[in-house]
Amino acid sequence: MPDYRRRIIDEELDDVFTALPAVSLDGPKGVGKTATASRRASTIMTLDRRDRIDELAADPTYVDRAAKPLLIDEWQRLPATWDWVRRAVDRDYRGGQFLLAGSAAPVEAPMHSGAGRISSLRMRPLSLAERSSSAPTVGLKRLLAGDAVIVGQTEWSLPDYVREIVSSGFPAVRTLTGRARRMALDGYLERIVERDFIEQGYRVRAPDSLRAWLRAYAAATASTAAYTTILDAATIGDADKPSKPTTIAYRDVLTQLWMLDPVPAWHPSNVDLGRVSKAPKHHLADPALAARLMQLDEQDLLALTANAMIGPQQGAALGRLFEGLVTLSLQTYAQAAEARVTHFRDLAGTHEVDLIVEAGANIVAIEVKLAPVVQAKDVQHLLWLRERLGDRLADAIVVTTGDTAYRRPDGIAVVPAALLGP
Hints:
6-stranded mixed sheet
């Protein structure tokens, strides 16, 4: 693959695959799992065709005989594969033997979890650092260590981020433009409704209801809206609403397809921050899917920033999608740093921080602002949190659409999204 561009997850695989016997790459269709895994494989078994599934099912010992590393792509189509690999690892625990790539949880769960034999890595759409030709100047690992140097300049501005929101982090989709890209994203979403749900064993009785629910979920991007609120937004004026079990099934199947990537609420320990909200922040796998579901293209999103007559819900859409883009990127950077991403909000809504990145005892608090300039009101929650966490807070930053990274006199770092990396 001469045109392959290394991903951040390649660094993770370089670090662990020679020591671990089997690694599963999990993520939605189209994120590049096959391309990344294929570069490390001596043998590739792709289970996207019935004849290949039948071939492996008839001869499971192929898993042992094949030249290693062996990549089994779309392994979930033959769930027994997981147990065959697990047993092979029991017989031979040498590192670097198996790669499994899956775009959905199997309909029939394997007999064994694979704990201790098969390790999992989440693969997401391209982060901003993986899309840009410029190297980021502020790394999350250094922020977590508390010794980050906040420097750098970028030529990126709001139109560049809007372009990236709609371009998508799916490698094949982002090479397209205009109508072709819109059709590709529409087709991706339509496949979920018309085919992927069925393949997961769930027949959608009312596809239009599922489409409406997806649109309402997209509109709730980066919010903690209750699922009942999302359902109400999807069924305005509809007396015959889907039942609660039906909407729970939507969420379950979309989770199995790696299409939902919510940010859980942070539950701090050894510090009193009051009564804390437990609601997750909603995110689809790629903000481009959310923008497409809301029928917002590049020109539409830029118009939202210039039109003073728009309503508050439309006006918030771009800010939420920008936070979605930053969150997608931070999830990738955090995984590389062995860190976890959450968010904080107290029940009263008095204090909230968009993103909390935690690695061991070290914490980085992050606010995301769709603006090039940071004002005092933009850092007040970060300063409040720093007072309560003390030395546990390794750093606090505001991610912006500005052009310069710097540290404010109050110690809060200001970092353009394009300059933030792993």
